[in-house]
Amino acid sequence: MVDLWAGTRDRRGQKSWEQDTLCCFFSISKALTALCVLQAVADELIDLEAPVARYWPEFAAEGKDGIQIRHLLTHQAGLVGFHEALDAEDFYDWEIVTRRLAAERPWWSPGEKHGYHARTFGWLLGEVLRRATGSRVAEWLQDRISGPRGLDIHLGLQEAQLPRCADMLPARIRPGSGAPLSPEARAMLADFRNLDTPTGAAFQNPALGPGYMNTERFRRLEQPAISGHGTARSLARLFGALDEILPAQLLAEATRVHSFGTDAVLKAVSCFGLGLMVYDPQAPIGVRPGTFGHAGAGGSMAYRDPVAGVGFCYLMNQMQEGAITGNVSAMRTAEAVYSCL
């Protein structure tokens, strides 16, 4: 195992990054949530083909009775956000948000296309897991995945863990700097602040304000799509052990392509298995075909390469603009790993 860390973990650049520094890894959380749900599938507590409403009866409202568990995992459910405004305070209330989602109408006919469920992925699958098993995602993760393996991975931090957190630094966006935006990036930016579009609803309803990810309230929050914290070492170990976490047949099903093409939210090509990003040259997770895992906002990336036998994770607190499947530093670090094999 190779474990490297460097730099500083606070906004003033005065506190050194330590071996046990906890970093918010945003959407890598989705992969952890998917693993919890898939373990419940393996235990025959959840059926991939079952309608969500079997476990969550209120969810059938607005014609959603045909949405299957599989649709949630593959970003095909069309429930990327809310049509009506959600208060920022309500974002932190599980019962309010899940009640609103149960009453929501899809943004498209479920199963007909896919679009990144940037934040709702965690609430939707988390509520299914809770209804079907009685366990919240954070509990299942601790009891069945991270705890038994001694992994420093968490959804909702305890008070004693808060001092170890790195401050996340938003991407430095300078007008007129950098390469020209692609047509896909321009299309996404045009919709980003328009709450009447799937993109705006997914990312900005509600808008949480600058620096929300550095607040104690967010760090303590169990939001199974974006609030995960941990170390790169632990995530690399986790992804390297996925064949121990899921049965071989289910892992194969989870890592084949289920959704591919232009993403209705991201406006660019995305490629998903069951809750996991799957490598495609147009949407690379890792740097080699056959890899699968997940990326996080600003450029973090974790994946498994079953051919090379590699579990990899790159985490950072300086976020980069426009990184969907790992930023430049993540990709260069991954290339360096293969040069050593």
Describe, in plain words, how this protein is organized in 3D:
This protein has 341 residues and is α+β, with helices and mostly antiparallel strands. 32% of the residues lie in helices and 11% in strands. Strands 6-7-8-9 form a 4-stranded antiparallel sheet, sandwiched between helices. Strands 1-3-2 form a 3-stranded antiparallel sheet. The longest helix has 15 residues, at 28-42. The protein is globular.
- The first-to-last residue Cα distance is 12 Å
Compute the number of strand runs.
9
Structural class by sheet pairing and helices: alpha+beta
Spatial sequence of strands, sheet with the most strands: 6-7-8-9
Outline, from the CA principal axes? globular
What is the helical fraction, as a range of percent?
25-40%
Number of helices: 12
Taking the sheet with the most strands, its summary is: 4 strands, antiparallel
Rg, alpha carbons: 19 Å
Strand content: 5-15%
What is the average per-residue confidence, as pLDDT, rounded to a whole number?
A: 95
H and E string: EHHHHHEHHHEHHHEEEEEEH
In terms of per-residue confidence, which ranges show pLDDT below 50 for 5 or more consecutive residues?
A: none
